[in-house]
Amino acid sequence: MEGMKRASVIWKTALPAAFFALLLLATTSNCPAEEAKESEGKESKGKVLLVIATVNFASEEYKAIREGLEKAGFQVVVGCTVRNSRGIPDIGNVTADRVLSEVKDMELYEGMVFCGGPGMSEYSGENFPPGSPDSLKQSIRDSISQARKLVEEALRSEKAVGAICLAPAAVLAPMSAIKGRRVTGFAQREELAAFKKAGALYTGRPVEADGNLITAKVEGMEGFVKSLVAALSIPFVFPCEGYAQGLKGKGNFGLQISSAKADEAFKGSYHLAEDVWLKAGTAVKSIANGVVAYSDFSPTWTDKDKKVHWNLGNVIIIEHELSPAAKDLTHVCSVYMHLGADRKVKEGDKVGKGQAIGAIGMDKSDENGRYPAHLHFGVHKGPYLQLSPGWKRDKIEEAAAIGLPVGNPPDIRIEKGKIVDVKLAGKTTAEFTFESGSVARIGLLMQSSSPDYKPADIMGWCRGYGDKETVEEWLRPSEWIGKKG
Fold first, then answer.
1. Where is 197: in which H helix or E strand?
2. Closest residue by Cα to residue 142 from 153, 130, 155, 128
3. Segments making up each domain of the chain, as ranges
4. How many CA atoms lie within 13 A of 55 on its CB side?
5. What's the chain's Rg over C-alpha atoms?
6. With contact defined as beta carbons under 8 Å apart, do 157 and 111 qualify?
7. Inter-CA distances, 138 with 22, 103, 207, Å
8. Is the dihedral of CA 439, 443, 449, 451 positive or negative?
9. Least reliable range by pLDDT among 58-72, 178-192, 248-262, 406-420
10. Triad 432, 438, 441: Cα angle to 5°
11. Is the pLDDT of residue 12 over 50?
12. In angstroms, what CA-CA distances link 11 with 32, 52, 53, 128, 298?
């Protein structure tokens, strides 16, 4: 590229011998203390990977981007092809928190942004400091390769990607990931040709925000930082690519099951989630930062009378704290049913927005509960451990119709009658008080009916269908995430 060719000339005069020695050292230094510091982090909106060049990144852009992100509440993690870098104007050595080849994936980050400056031309290919030993060249090659993979992953996961000045041409243009996307940035004849070859739509505007891809020219710095912060601050994303298309119209949330083909167990009930009809193997990701509350396999099984007992297949539930809290709502739980057996998270894991957690299970297979291939996705109001209205209502009706167990082992009996009070008695137990004064202590967790594999007990509210009143406990995912995102 013409602009990049000119930029590469700066290598010849801008690399002092002492600094070159630091570059050589960086090919073997893994700086564990800094990695530990990054992993500890601090209370923030999340981490953002700010990528700079080995030398001659634009110092003023670096400072403006960093200050803007930190002011907005994000923790900045500096990434580079080597450990030590030097910008222009000279602000002294900048020590990267991470060498890019060490960054496994984007799970720890809300997004990534590439600083500008002529030194960013190194990301376009084989552009090394003069006299670089093979070890340094290979280190830079590995980091460039990984940087491209991280960009692709971030764009695919709907995480924000920003690039300014020469970076859109140097970093993004060699990638197919920007095909059909609007971009801007420093561009002369060679750079314009590169954008065209990549299938990107170059607009020439000071700032271009195309979804989660934010690009800019130097004069658009202020707008670039604002757009970047806005993209990074989106708290929720959809659980898979093609979500809207997979809904087949407006989706089936809250619809009553009345089809003649429906199993008797479901007929007349209401659907509490959205079915997303995408092919088996489609990646499923967490819709937001959260903690995995449940991850197990709930098998569908057939009894000796050939009656099918339908269950969830592989299922994951993630609890998300809302910040700021909505009116009367501090948490929601995202529910992913009919997944494949390769669940990537376990109970207690912290997950990030857009992090891969599994995939849609194979069509009508045991792993997905014997259903046609699709994702059953719901968003339930409140935390995972809760005394939900629908479950409480079911138990009150059960007490009146067939009774609930009262007393303590071994003196347990079934009492039938009217419930006058219900309250929590610990995190996973509720007390139902009868009109007579007797108390039934019922666990909030539900056991699987499977005679073979026994998954962990699951909260009673976690089901695919319910009565009309129970629909009110759930949010319509496409509408709610659409507003939040």
1. helix 189-198
2. 128
3. 2-232, 243-385+448-484, 389-443
4. 19
5. 27
6. no
7. 16, 16, 34
8. negative
9. 248-262
10. 40
11. no
12. 29, 15, 12, 8, 60
The answer on pLDDT for 307 being more than 70 is yes
CA angle centred on 256, ends 255 and 261, rounded to 5°: 115
Read off the amino acid at residue 136.
L
| Distance from chain centroid for Cα 167 | 25
CA torsion sign for 290, 383, 458, 374 is negative
pLDDT at 259: 63
Reported confidence tier of residue 265, pLDDT bands at 50, 70, 90:
low
CATH 3.40.50.880 fits 2-232, yes or no: yes
CA angle 200, 202, 205 (to 5 degrees): 145
Q: Are 31 and 91 in contact (CB under 8 A)?
A: no
Placement of tokens 């690399």 in the chain: 15
**Checking DSSP bridges between strand 55-58 and strand 84-88, what pairing results, if any?**
parallel
Specify which residues 85 forms β-bridges with.
Answer: 94
Contact at 8 Å (CB) between 298 and 458?
Answer: yes
The string of pLDDT tens digits covering residues 315-345 is 999 999 998 887 789 999 999 999 999 999 9
Q: Which tokens in the block code for residue 473?
A: 């406990």
- Token pair in block for residue 302: 């057939």
Contacts of 419 (CB under 8 A, 6+ apart): 395, 396, 399, 400, 432, 433, 434, 435
Q: Which residues make Cβ contacts (< 8 Å) with residue 466, sequence separation at least 6?
A: 269, 270, 272, 390, 473
With beta carbons less than 8 A apart as the criterion, state whether 130 and 138 touch: no
Residue 360 carries which DSSP code? B
- The DSSP output letter for 172 is I
Angle in degrees, CA 165, 168, 171, rounded to 5: 120
Q: Which of 440, 375, 386 is nearest to 408 (CA)?
A: 440
Peptide bond into 32 cis (omega under 30): no
Pairing of the two strands 160-164 and 109-114 = parallel
The topology under which CATH files domain 243-385+448-484 is Glucose Permease (Domain IIA) (2.70.70)
Confidence of residue 29 (pLDDT cuts 50, 70, 90): very low
Sign of the CA dihedral 410, 419, 309, 283?
negative
Token reading at 134: 């093979």
pLDDT at 134: 86
Cα torsion at 279, 284, 287, 289 (round to 10°)? 180
86 pLDDT higher than 90: no
Burial 380-405, CB ≥16 within 10 A → b, else e: bbbebebbbebbbebbbebbeeeebe
How many Å separate Cα 286 from the centre of its chain? 4
